Structures are given as C-alpha cells and as structure tokens.
TrEMBL record:
Endoglycosidase which is a cell surface and extracellular matrix-degrading enzyme. Cleaves heparan sulfate proteoglycans (HSPGs) into heparan sulfate side chains and core proteoglycans. It comes from Prunus armeniaca (Apricot). Keywords: Glycoprotein, Hydrolase, Lysosome, Membrane, Secreted, Signal. The keyword ATP-binding does not apply. The keyword Transmembrane helix does not apply. SUPFAM superfamilies: (Trans)glycosidases. This is Heparanase-like protein 3. It is found in: Lysosome membrane; Secreted. GO terms for molecular function: beta-glucuronidase activity. Belongs to the glycosyl hydrolase 79 family. Pfam families: Glyco_hydro_79n. It is a peripheral membrane protein.
Length: 445
C-alpha cells in the first residue's frame, strides 16, 4: 500500500548517549551509522489499545526488602484515592487496565454483608506464609475503590484468593480444592452494586514451583472451572461477562501444558509473570538492563506459551499479568529511576496497535520498534541507544534493502518537507544521571 510507504508523521524518541554502565552519561567517544528498515506494507502483529497497564498491590508499609521499606501508602488498602496526580495519571492513559493483586491476594478475606470487619490486617509475622497474617478487604473500601475506578475510566482485573480452603503439606504444596464461597460473595456483591469488573483472576504465582507454595496443575484447572461456573451463573443475563484469567504465575512448560489442556473452555486469558532481571538485591541490575541478550532472552517464554495455545483447543490468549523486572520490590534508584523507565505516556499516545517489522543491521545496542501511528497516517518509530560511548546516525527506509527510500534522522528537532512530516521526542535523564528520578523531554522538565 503506497500510503504506508510515505511517512506523514514519524516520531523519534531518543535516548541518545544516555545509557551506560556508569552512574552518569559520558560524551560519546565514537560513532556509527546504519539504515533502519521498516516494512510498512503489512502488520506482523497487533496489540490491545490498552497495552499499557498497571498493578495495585496489597503490600502494607511494613513490607521491607534489603533494608528498604518501599511500599508506604501504595496498597489497595491505604492508597490515597483523592490524590489528583494519581487520578489524572490514570485518566491520561484511558482506558488503563489495572490489575488488583499480588502475593498477599492469596491471604485476603473479603468482608460480606453478614460478617464483621476485623480490627487488624496484614500484621508482619515471619512464621506465616509470605511473612504476614491474613488481610481483610472491607466492603466500604471496595466501594471507595470502585467509585475511584469509575471516575478514572480504569479497566479493572481483580485477583482472587486461590488458597482459600487449602492446606500446606510437608512438601510445601497447597493441597485440596479451592473454597470459592468467599470469592463468590464478593462477586455477587460487586454485581449487586453495579460495579464493572473486566476480569476475575484466580491466584498469584502458584503455578510450577510457585512462590511460597504451589498448586498442582490438575487441581488448578478444576478450580478455574469452578470460577468460570460462578461467573456464568452470577452474570447470567448480562450480554457481556467478565473474563476469567489464570494462573498469574511464572511460566513452567509442563505445568502450563497440563493446565491449558484441562481448561479448554474455562478461561479467556492465560496470564504469566516476568521478572527476568532477578532479585532486587543483584549488584548488576543496570548491566542487565543495558544488555541486549538479557532483553531478548525473555522472548523464548512468549514463543513457548504461544505455541502451547496454538496447539490446544482453547480460545484463550496470553497476557503478561505482572512484570516488575527485578523481584522483591526492585532496587531503590534503579527500578524507580531513569535507567528503568518506560516512556509509557508517549507510547500510549503515539504507538498504534499495528506492529511493523523493523530491523537495524548495525549495532545491537540500538533497540528499534515501529508501529502504525495511533491517530494519524504514518509510522511511529522508537529508538533506544543503550551505549553511551557510541553515537548512532540513523537513516530510515520504508522499503526493502534493495530499494531504499531514505528519511534522514540526524537532526535534533522536527522538520517538514514537501512530502514528509517528522516529529521527534527526545527523552534524557536529568544531569545525565541514570539513577535520576527526573526525566527530561527535549531537555526540559
């Protein structure tokens, strides 16, 4: 299609000479150049309009890792729902898909209209599973959360307690069937109040070897069928019903194979988690973040899970339900700083849902992504230079290597020509510090 060959809007997001293995950015000591090939004739993949998503966890302020207590007032139970910055941030990503869940979701009891609200919740106790006692979701807090989500236009996925009714055996496995009664009470109350839930997810990180404990694939499949039955029953008469998601754990091929085989029609989304940087205590987190082989390595998980789904009879699709990079709350001034950043708002506004084939035969330190633009004709390109010692001069071609049609991308600002319009967005760290919590757009706050 000729209209895709002529680029009417091209956005160039630059991390030029910004990433290094040091704490600050040095002047590039060498340069290289090459051609970025973008095939705009056909999409090679598609993504949801709400590709950018977030999780709100249950961890209380007492949750500490490696001497840092980072959670503060970020829990479902204590988050300030009147915070204007939070409200406007969620609105800016509308529709933002928000998953409510995490490790402690499998220790949460939901208040019902018949039960009393306990006075304590999630007390720190090293003898308890996950290091905390049971927690409780008061009905009043569930009401507040849903009012907030309705106000912001968020798309909500709620993670249910999948350990209810089970016992932990001597091998550390959770055995027995899931007791769904408390979860069903929450779902019925939610429907009664008219709250919109996009999906109900069963459990958190209980697949394979699990985290803290585990549930066998066959039993998990049976429990997922029970959840599907509850959703179908409670939402009877609703034209659109919430999705059922599971297992929300780390990919284990044998476990997932059995689980998917035994739930061919019982769930709509197979969720898995990614923490490919290892623990937050790792001393080489920045080196991993800037290592192309580490970034590429996770692709095998995607391929393996997709292959399982294609070979099965399930209509379910795969989602990354949670991805924090480094587990155990990350690392201060790394996973909450520029080096770990994702230009999420620009991505949401500029990148369309059609993914284009993109290749750069030069240095592997240049990461390149191309999509059809979101609200205009043309192509949006994201370029990330992981090497502070090398300046990369890039030419962009929308044709095959044998028929080059170049757009020069060596300028530092947007430019207009008779045929092409280009806009550029440059993102850098304040003072060139990879550990900075301030990101500059075009050199400005």
């Amino acid at each position: 299609m000729r209209s895709l060959v002529i680029i009417s809007l091209l956005c160039y997001w630059v991390y030029m000479a910004t990433h290094s293995h040091k704490s600050s950015i040095s002047v590039a000591s060498q340069s290289t150049e090459g051609t970025l090939f973008v095939n705009g004739t056909a999409a090679i993949g598609f993504m949801d309009d709400d590709f950018v998503c977030a999780t709100i966890d249950w961890w209380p302020p007492q949750k500490c890792d490696y001497g840092t207590c980072s959670w503060g007032s970020a829990s479902l139970l204590n988050l300030d729902l009147d915070n204007a910055i939070l409200l406007n941030a969620i609105k800016a990503f509308s529709p933002l898909k928000i998953r409510l869940g995490g490790t402690l979701q499998d220790k949460v009891i939901y208040q019902t209209e018949e039960s009393q609200q306990p006075s304590t919740s999630f007390l720190k106790d090293g003898s308890e599973l996950f290091g905390f006692t049971q927690g409780y979701l008061p009905m009043s807090r569930w009401d507040q959360l849903n009012i907030f989500f309705n106000k912001t236009g968020a798309v909500v996925i709620f993670g249910l307690n999948a350990l209810r009714g089970r016992t932990i055996n001597s091998q550390g496995a959770a055995v027995g069937a899931w007791n769904s009664s408390n979860a069903e009470s929450l779902i019925r109350y939610t429907v009664k109040r008219g709250y919109r839930i996009h999906g109900w997810e069963l459990g958190n990180e209980l697949s394979g070897n699990g985290v803290g404990t585990r549930v066998a694939a066959g039993q998990y499949a049976s429990d997922t069928k029970s959840l599907q039955s509850i959703v179908q029953n409670v939402y009877a008469g609703f034209e659109a019903k919430p999705q059922v998601l599971a297992p929300g754990g780390f990919f284990d091929e044998n476990w997932f194979t059995e689980f998917i085989h035994k739930t061919p029609q019982s769930l709509q989304v197979v969720t898995h988690h990614i923490y490919n940087l290892g623990p937050g205590s790792s001393g080489d987190l920045i080196q991993k973040i800037l290592d192309p082989s580490v970034l590429d390595g996770i692709s095998q998980t995607f391929k393996s899970l997709q292959s399982l789904l294609e070979k099965s009879n399930t209509p379910a699709v795969a989602w990354v339900g949670e991805s924090g990079g480094a587990y155990n709350s990350g690392h201060n001034l790394v996973t909450n700083a520029f080096v770990f950043s994702f230009c999420a708002l620009l991505w949401h506004r500029l990148m369309g849902n059609k993914v284009l084939s993109t290749s750069f035969p030069g240095t592997k330190k240049l990461r390149a992504y191309a999509h059809c633009s979101k609200k205009t004709q043309g192509i949006t390109v994201l370029l990330i230079n992981l090497d502070s010692n090398t300046k990369v001069q890039v030419r962009v071609s929308t044709e095959s290597p044998g028929r080059l049609s170049y757009l020069n991308f060596q300028g530092l600002r947007g430019s207009k020509g008779s045929q092409n319009v280009r806009e550029e967005y440059h993102l850098t760290a304040k003072d060139g510090d990879l550990h900075s919590k301030v990101m500059l757009l075009m050199g400005k706050h």
